[in-house]
Cleavage and polyadenylation specificity factor (Artemisia annua), 107 residues
Amino acid sequence: MSYASYKLLHPPTGITNCASGFITHSPADFVPPVSPLDIDAEAVSPSVGPIPNLIVTAAHVLEVYRVRVSEDGGKDVAVEPQRGGVMAGVSGASLELVCSYRYCISV
């Protein structure tokens, strides 16, 4: 049995590689919110910026996921510790499978 047919007959069991990139959307599409009441305001309420897609390969399967982010909204901040950096203002995230491709060769 050749290596290629072995890969086709036996489904992948683990992730071989992963990367991130803007496949389904552009980072230029993100426009930070501006308060209509005060145009001169320096600090706008923090929100999550553009998040790249997650690209995963497992043997001969290539999958692209969209990251869905749930932002903190009106929660009591005294109960939960403050997060900084990338996780500031994020309460959770989920993955949505955008596309999946099966190839005859290893990816």
